[in-house]
Amino acid sequence: MRMTTLYAALSGAFLLGTAALVSAQTNNAPAGSTVTNPAKNAHVAVSKEYRADKDRIESEYKADKEKCKSMNGNAKDVCMKEAKGKENVAKAELEAQRKGTPHAAYEVQKARADATYDVAKEKCDDMKGADKSSCKKTAKADHDKALAEAKSSRGTMASAGKSTTTTTTTTSPSTTSAPSSTPPATTAPKKTS
């Protein structure tokens, strides 16, 4: 009797655990996806234009890789990095166009910075000694600067998207003192009824 009770308890626990797992899987987005509302942009992801653009990007990457195969040494490595970087940037731009979020725009800037950095590092391999070390340090500094600019612009894009009612315009002193070729706009007096 003890064994039957034990089996019943284990079976019940297994069934309850399975039921809990099935009910917990409400998010249909792929693992690692940043899509918060996949249904909102689903029509774009399955559209013919989106798929055609994605296929075009992949075919351009394959063609660029083929061009690199005829090269030798570090020139081939640089060519491959350029092809991969071009593909990554194009994919990021396609996703940014689809999503239209500040984070997606940041991802485009990040992809550009990463691609430029990868190519610059590969070009440094042609050098030797202190020149190579200096080249890599410069490439890293440029990459860090580009990432910092992307992060700062992400913050301004996000705040601009949240606050559309407050806009500030500034004029430089040189524009206020220069005579204008267009006459100032006048407003018509209001008619009272």
Poorly predicted tracts of residues = 29-33, 164-186
Largest β-sheet summary: none
Radius of gyration over alpha carbons? 28 Å
Structural class: mainly alpha
Distance between the termini: 96 Å
What does this structure look like?
- The protein is mainly α and 193 residues long.
- It has a domain at 42-161.
- It has helices at 2-24, 42-45, 48-69, 73-99, 102-124, 129-162, 173-177.
- The longest helix is centred in the C-terminal third of the chain and has 34 residues, at 129-162.
- It is elongated.
Short description:
This protein is mainly α and 193 residues long. The protein is built from seven helices and no strands. The termini are far apart.
Question: Descriptors for this entry?
Answer:
mainly alpha
List the topology elements.
Elements: H1 2-24, H2 42-45, H3 48-69, H4 73-99, H5 102-124, H6 129-162, H7 173-177
Helix pairs in contact: 3-4, 4-5, 5-6
